[in-house]
Every structure is written in C-alpha cells, then in structure tokens.
Design a protein that fits this description.
By secondary structure, this protein is an alpha/beta fold. The chain is globular and about 40 Å long. The N and C termini lie close together (6 Å).
Length: 214
Amino acid sequence: MKVSPSILTCDFAYVAKEFQFVEDTGADMIHVDVMDSVFVPNMSFGPPVLACMRKVTDMFLDVHLMMQYPDRMIPAFIKAGADLLNIHLECSSPIDETLDTIRNAGVKTGLTIKPATPAEAAFPYLDKLDLVLVMTVEPGFGGQKFMADMMPKVAALRAEIDRRGLKTKVEVDGGINAETAPVAAAAGADIAVVGSALFNAADPKALVAAIQKL
C-alpha cells in the first residue's frame, strides 16, 4: 500500500519545512486538497500556492480538486506542477472531456466519488483513470471519523478493475490511521491518504512503514 500524506493538516506558515517532514517519513507522494468553498463548505488554495509547493519538493503531487467547475482551472493546475489531477464525479464539469484534457496534457487522471455515490457510477470512466478515490468521510474538512461502510465500494471497484485487466489504482481518503488502513487494504485499496494521523503521530516514519507493508 502506498501512502499519500494530506498537507491540508500542515502548518502553511512553514510549507517547505512541512514538505521536508513528509519526505523524511518515507511517504510515496503528497496529497494536495484544493477546495473552492462551493463544491465543499471550505476553501484552501489555488494554482499559485501549488506552484510554490512544486518549488520545494520533487515528490509526486496527487492533487484532489474539490471544485464545482474544475475544467475551468485544469490548465492552470497543470502549469503549476500537478502530477495527477483528480476531479469529483459529482462536479458540474463534463467528466469525459475534462479527463481527456488532463490526459492529453501528459498528466495522470483521477476521479473521486463521495460517500453517497455508488461505486458503479465510476465504472464507465475506469479505462481513462490512473486512480479512483473513494472518500471515507464527507469531503471538505480533515480529522473526521473513518466510514467503514464505504469498504464495499472499494471492493466493488477493485473487482471491476481486476475483471477488466486495468491498472487503475484505488485510493481512500478520510480517517485513515494505523487501525483503519488495514481495513481499507483488505477491501482492495492501493493508496491511503493520511492526514492528521501522520502529522500527530509519535513516530511518523513507523506509521508510514506499517501502512506500506499492508
């Protein structure tokens, strides 16, 4: 299992220091939560801040666009240095066209489903995806409790991906820690987004290593 720490939990007054902390844990990539205060009731940052993050790390940037109209900002996020752009199935942008724009620019594609959205809704897009993200909390805020009832969705996506012989990865995001990561891995998740559990861990390196062994 790969670990993608969410920098939503970090202290943005010390971004370079926090990114170095993430690198030192041995994590595989960095999860960047972008929120527009329309699609979700919270706001984070846009392409200029992502560009600054790109300057302080060479790690893979897994950029999660919690936006109502992500298609309007795709070129700017690509220019800012995103390695993967992940849009929500529930957004108001045209899904196929937006995914094509991302892929045609040489950037990896992702699609997220919220807790109320069934796994089957993502099936038509799987062949266009490098990653599909199952939210295990309601998107918008960190530190929420893991929703174990999302695991059948993870299992359904894993089964369909395997049935079709695709290489699409399954990611989980929300309430992931030392206790819940094994549950997600058992259901078929490949990547764990870890936020407050990592930044508040007594031994962050040990937590990352334990999840990576799953």
